[in-house]
C-alpha cells in the first residue's frame, strides 16, 4: 500500500520505492502535457506523409499541405493569421529568435522563464529587469521607470512579458502592459506558452507584437514551437539554411510533429475555458489543501491565475523531499523552484515575489514550494486522492513544523 510510504520520513527512499503504487496520477501539466486524445493518430498518419515540404513533387506538396494546415490551426488558436506564424524547434528557440533580433534595450519581468531571461542577458542589448509585487504581478511603476530609461534615449526597445507564470500560474495584465509599452514606443513579446490552451488568448486583444507558444504544453509533441509576429514586423533567423519558414528557420520541417501541434491546437481551441472558468475547482482544491497544511501559503493566491495551477509553500519542509514522497505514492508534481537536469535550485520567481519575507522565514519558504498543475486527464477523484496523500506526506515528513 502506498500509504505506508508516508511514515518513512523519506530517509528510506530505497525501501519506500519497493512499496510504490503502480497507479500514477500526473499533476505536472505545466512541465509538459500528455498527448491530447486524437493527436497521436494525426501524428502517426502524418508519418506516412514522408515528403520534404520543400519538394515540388506530389509527396512534397502533401507534406507542405500538412504544415500549412497546422499553421492555420495554430494561428486560429491565438487569433492570428497563418501567414504570421512560423514554426521552429521549441518555444525557447522562438523566444531567442525574437530577443536576439538586434534590440538596443530589452526589458523583462523578474519572473520570466529562463528561456527569456538568459537570451535577454546575453543578447548584447541593455537589459532592465522590472520587479513583481508579492502577488507576482508586474510592478507597473517599475515598468514605467524602465521604459523611461530606455525610451528617453530613443532606443529600439523590446519588453518581454509572460501571459502566465509556469511556477505560480499568475496571469499578467498583458493588454495593460502592451498599452503602456505602445505609448512609450516599445514593442512587446508575449511568452504565451503557459496560457495557450488553458485560457483563451488572442494576440490582437492582447495588443502584443510577438507571441510564442509551445506544442508540448497543450497536448502536442515536444520539440516544436511557434512564433507569431505582427504583420509588418520582420525577424532574422537564428538558424539559417535552406530558406524554410520564409527564411526564418532553416532545416527541413518536422512535419509529423507540426501536424500534431496543429491538431492539438484545433482540439483545444474548441474546449477553452474563459478566464476563470475552472476556478471553482481550483478554489475548492486550495481550500482543502490549506485545511490540511497548517501554515501553508498558496503563492499568488490573491492574483488572477491559471485555473489549473496551485503553488503551495509548506514552511519547514524541503520541496525535494515532498516531491519524492509524493512520487513514491504515485503522484507526479514539481518543486515550485526551478528544476533542470533533475536538480532543484532556488526559484527566481518566488524570490522576485519576496516569498517568505512576510512570514519572516526567508529562504525556507521559497525552498518548500510545490507546484501542482492539472489538465484534461485529471479527475476530481485524482485531486481528492491527492489531498489525502498530501496531508499524510506533509504531516509525517520529518522536520515538519507549524509556522502560522
Ligand atoms: N516559457 C514558459 C513560460 C515555459 O513554461 C516554458 C517551458 O517550460 C518555455 C517558455 C519553454 O518552452 P519549450 O519547452 O518549448 O522550449
- Largest sheet at a glance? 7 strands, mixed
Q: How would you state the average pLDDT, rounded?
A: 89
> Approximately how much helix is present in the residues?
25-40%
Which strand order does the major sheet show? 2-8-7-6-5-3-4
Radius of gyration (CA) equals: 22 Å
The percentage of residues in β strands lies in 5-15%
The total count of strands amounts to: 15
Keywords:
single chain, about 400 residues, alpha/beta, 7-stranded mixed beta sheet, 4-stranded antiparallel beta sheet, 14 helices, disordered C terminus, binds pyridoxal-5'-phosphate
What does this structure look like?
With 404 residues, the protein is an alpha/beta fold. Helix content is 35%, strand content 14%. It is built from 14 helices and 15 strands. The chain has helices at 13-17, 39-47, 58-77, 91-99, 114-122, 140-151, 174-183, 203-206, 255-269, 279-291, 319-328, 348-352, 363-366, 380-396; strands spanning 25-26, 85-88, 105-109, 126-130, 157-162, 187-191, 210-214, 225-229, 297-298, 309-313, 331-332, 334-335, 339-340, 343-344, 369-373. The strands form four sheets. It has a seven-stranded mixed β-sheet with strand order 2-8-7-6-5-3-4, sandwiched between helices. Residues 1-19 and 400-404 have low confidence and may be disordered. Bound molecules: pyridoxal-5'-phosphate (PLP). Pyridoxal-5'-phosphate is lined by residues 90-92, 113, 115, 162, 166, 191, 193-194, 214, 225. Pyridoxal-5'-phosphate (PLP) binds next to α4.
Amino acid at each position: 500500500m502506498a500509504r505506508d510510504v508516508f511514515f518513512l520520513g523519506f530517509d528510506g527512499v530505497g525501501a519506500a520505492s519497493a512499496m510504490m503504487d503502480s497507479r500514477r496520477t500526473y499533476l505536472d501539466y505545466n512541465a509538459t502535457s500528455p498527448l491530447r486524445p486524437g493527436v497521436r493518430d494525426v501524428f502517426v498518419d502524418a508519418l506516412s506523409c514522408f515528403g520534404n515540404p520543400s519538394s515540388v513533387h506530389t509527396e512534397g506538396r502533401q507534406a507542405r499541405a500538412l504544415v500549412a494546415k497546422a499553421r492555420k490551426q495554430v494561428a486560429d488558436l491565438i487569433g492570428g493569421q497563418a501567414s504570421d506564424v512560423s514554426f521552429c524547434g521549441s518555444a525557447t528557440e522562438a523566444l531567442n529568435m525574437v530577443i536576439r533580433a538586434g534590440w538596443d534595450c530589452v526589458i523583462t519581468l523578474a519572473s520570466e522563464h529562463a528561456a527569456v531571461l538568459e537570451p535577454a542577458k546575453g543578447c548584447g542589448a541593455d537589459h532592465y529587469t522590472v520587479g513583481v509585487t508579492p502577488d507576482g504581478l508586474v510592478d507597473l511603476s517599475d515598468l514605467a521607470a524602465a521604459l523611461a530609461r530606455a525610451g528617453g534615449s530613443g532606443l529600439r526597445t523590446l519588453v518581454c512579458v509572460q501571459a502566465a507564470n509556469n511556477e505560480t500560474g499568475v496571469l499578467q495584465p498583458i493588454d495593460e502592459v502592451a498599452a503602456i509599452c505602445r505609448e512609450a514606443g516599445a514593442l512587446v513579446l508575449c511568452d504565451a506558452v503557459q496560457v495557450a490552451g488553458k485560457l483563451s488568448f488572442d494576440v490582437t486583444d492582447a495588443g502584443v507584437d510577438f507571441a510564442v507558444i509551445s506544442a508540448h504544453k497543450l497536448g502536442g509533441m515536444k520539440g516544436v514551437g511557434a512564433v507569431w509576429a505582427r504583420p509588418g514586423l520582420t525577424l532574422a533567423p537564428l538558424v539559417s539554411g535552406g530558406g524554410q519558414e520564409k527564411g526564418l528557420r532553416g532545416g527541413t520541417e518536422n512535419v509529423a510533429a507540426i501536424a500534431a501541434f496543429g491538431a492539438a491546437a484545433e482540439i483545444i481551441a474548441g474546449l477553452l475555458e474563459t478566464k476563470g472558468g475552472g476556478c471553482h475547482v481550483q478554489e475548492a482544491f486550495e481550500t482543502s489543501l490549506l485545511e490540511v497544511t497548517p501554515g501553508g501559503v498558496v503563492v499568488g493566491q490573491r492574483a488572477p491565475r491559471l485555473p489549473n495551477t496551485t503553488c503551495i509553500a509548506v514552511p519547514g519542509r524541503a520541496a525535494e523531499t515532498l516531491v519524492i514522497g509524493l512520487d513514491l505514492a504515485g503522484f507526479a508534481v514539481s518543486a515550485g523552484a526551478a528544476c533542470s537536469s533533475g536538480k532543484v535550485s532556488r526559484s527566481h520567481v518566488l524570490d522576485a515575489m519576496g516569498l517568505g519575507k512576510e512570514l519572516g522565514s526567508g529562504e525556507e519558504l521559497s525552498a518548500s514550494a510545490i507546484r501542482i498543475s492539472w489538465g484534461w486527464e485529471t479527475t476530481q477523484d485524482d485531486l481528492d486522492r491527492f489531498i489525502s496523500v498530501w496531508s499524510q506526506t506533509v504531516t509525517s515528513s520529518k522536520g515538519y513544523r507549524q509556522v502560522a
